[in-house]
Amino acid sequence: MVVESNPDVISAFQQNKYYRFINGNATLDEVLIEAGIQSASTVITALKEDSDNVFITLTARELNPNINIIAKILKNLAKITKLLQKLQNPS
Hints:
The chain is an alpha/beta fold. It has helices at 7-12, 29-34, 50-63, 77-88, and strands spanning 2-4, 21-23, 42-45, 68-71. The protein has a single domain (2-88), classed as NAD(P)-binding Rossmann-like Domain (Rossmann fold), CATH 3.40.50.720. The strands form 2 sheets. It has a two-stranded parallel sheet with strand order 1-2.
């Protein structure tokens, strides 16, 4: 499942049995739920803004505690890594 906010990108790809597109904003819980995040084995987030990728990471973990997460981070990698580690192990 691919969540894409640009309808032109979606129309440029032919849908097939291996993937589907949802037109929407992946930072919204309801869009991720529509995309099947609660039963997904993995989520890959590669938006332009690190903050959006972190937000999707946190939301994905909340909606599906067992999901594997791959997230693109361009800036402040050390700070974001520390934040995510703290959230996983709050003690």
